[in-house]
Amino acid sequence: HVTRRAEYTPPDWQVPEIALDFALDAAATRVKATLHVQRGDLHQRPLRLDGASQTLLSVKVDGVAVNDWTLDGETLVLPLSGSAHVIETEVEIAPERNTQLMGLYASGGNLCTQCEAEGFRRITYFPDRPDVLSRYHVRMSADKARYPVLLANGDPIAAGELEGGRHWAEWRDPFPKPCYLFALVAGELAVNRGSFVTMSGREVELGIWVRAADIDRTHHALDALKTSMAWDERVYGREYDLDVFNIVAVDDFNFGAMENKGLNVFNSRYILADPDTATDYDYDAIAAVVAHEYFHNWSGNRVTCRDWFQLSLKEGFTVYRDQAFSADQGSAAVKRIEDVRGLRASQFPEDAGPLAHPIRPDEYQEISNFYTATIYNKGAEIIGMLATILGREKFRAGTDLYFDRFDGTAATCEDFVASLEDASGIDLTQFRRWYGQAGTPRVTASLHHTEGSGRAELVLAQRTPPTPGQEHKLPLVLPLRIKLFGAETAQTVAPEQTILLTDAEERIVFEGVTERPVLSINRGFSAPAILETDRTAADLAFLGAHDDDPFARYEALQQLMLDTLVAAAGNNRADTAAVVKAVAGTLADATLDPAFIAEAVLLPSESFIGDQMAVVDPEAIFRAREALRREIGRTLEADWRAAYDESQATGSGYVYSPEAKGLRRLKSVALGYIAASGASDAAALAFAQFEAADNMTDRQSALTTLVAGDSAERIAALDIFYNRYSDNALVLDKWFSVQAMAPRDDTGAMVAELLRHRAFTLTNPNRARALIGAFGVNQRAFNAVDGSGYRLLAEQLIALDRINPQTAAKLIAPLGRWQRYDAARGGMMRAELARIVKTPGLSKDMFEQASKSLDA
Ligand code: ARG
Ligand code: ZN
Q: pTM for the complete prediction?
């Protein structure tokens, strides 16, 4: 069954008020729902309430038990005569048997909910669509010893004791909300409390709820929450609106976190951190996700989505907001590099593959499949381009107008764009194409200059390749930040300007060009495009040394490396010496931030190199990349050792600051190159770091280095790590991932063995992703020439689909890349996809992903 955007109709019935009464129990929970329903417009249609996986016990209309209802599939259909009624239903659900982790489920002995996108229908009968907004009154009762804490959305209003060791609590959320934002949590939880005074002087009580043993790992998340609240006031003028804001961390969660009104529920990996168990990367991710979910209170909750086709309205915008927040906390340049690297690793391939879709899709079979890098990260890039085009002040005026106009309503992407247009006076007609057109645009740029003419001409062209279902593409609006440097003096020849490329081809003339110009283009990655320029290796090396835009400088080095590696992987002449020289220059540049250096000297990933090739050859890519790593390691060995020692000398004790993070990052990159050089003491050096580490960043980077090699220390470190952290699920996930991502000949066999490890389970999504997900992105191991990697992934996906279809369907992407490989590999990948499609009892999540991947 396909749902289409064009077929949207407003809801037949509204539900302005709902009261829920939960008699909680892990095996059998009773849910009584009282819905105040109101007929919309002039129609005679019955009330239709979505439902799934629940047992209906009774139905009343206006206080009277009725039995003239029917079930249309799982939808409860009630004929009603008047325009307003009170509907009461009672159902039973079984949280502890809910392995899909959608609706009400059990995690670590506690009960919690996940409703977005369509989980609420697994809790009670309701019009499960985001344009039905209700005020919620929630009562919960439960065994007091097992579930001492009872939380729901909004503010707590009353609580009390019951007979038989049970107790109850009531919560009320004054803000009308769609049911996907409903949440409750019941369990044994400790709280780290804080408070925040809003800009209008209201005090908000903050609480981070975790199991008691984890309470010392919540301080970073609490700090991040306070920082986010202040940031959203300062940058967007958005103030928090309830008296309490609670976050609960759970171990079993299908994705990162959920912005339920006043009661965020998080995957524990995005809350829990201390130096011994979390890396700098984890600390950064925690702050980013805490901010993201908090920012949803306005971009998502106060203004929500009319239908799920508008998902990027809240997700793209909120990712844009959390990225800007993170950029403000440390190095904005490094943050931009990381975000673009992430976009290229997951979104570009998606846009080039069988599952390509616009940020506002036109149809879906299962909406869970559309929580994608495209909706989130390309969505964020598109908001970023709007911010660039409008400029800071007009963009802020536009978002103010948007929040003001649509507060308390369910809006569309068009509403957002129209608000920006109205507030700025800037015509965004053509820009809107970004919302409907899939695929990554390719921009070519060539700069022509005749010596002595004083003029330079830049020829720009754009083209977006076809994507499934979209043969013909139109030109997009691409804001390109451009600057020209003089090749001899390294001085500015033409100052930075933002060119709006709107046509298929355009020419821009620069006057007063007194020396040969070098083009710096798409500075800051101002448009999410794939760029092809006629810049030489010398030009790129020049920009890598002199560009004053840090992103552009990084990008020039990456392009130089990429060109070299693609040539080497294709057995063509490759000037590796130029790369070594550029790396040496970057490493030696004392004006640069160590965090930037660490990013800039890293070679592009195997998969990104593959994305540049007509036919991906994983073995050749791996060999070329390893050879270049060895050359960089060997030639600059003394420099790496110096960099390693210098970044080591940061004083004692773990500090989470941009400076300390940067040094740790450079240290781990240096260690990687020392190991790549083949130095005989490399394993000993890594093992010493592993043992001496007072933080997980250093320990994990040492382990990663050891696992890549064949030393005795490798086995020792893996054992020590496992034993030391055997009671910490999040750290064990790292233990699995490091091995699944290892650049080794035997990784496939190791992963097959780890699948049988006693600590491995498919029922925990983090664990499944740590092993199967990580293996799927290991280019060389997954693409083993005998097809064993493809078979392994398909078997696991089929098994996981029976337990948790949503999590399983997300992991299929690597098999969908079959068109990018040689015929033998492509054929084996297709065979596995076909096997998945034919599996009896396959979920609709998996069916949609597998069948689309196969058909393309
Ligand atoms: N809204 C959540 C967030 O991005 C994610 C919900 C994901 N839902 C899903 N069905 N995949 O913050
Ligand atoms: Zn979100």
A: 0.99
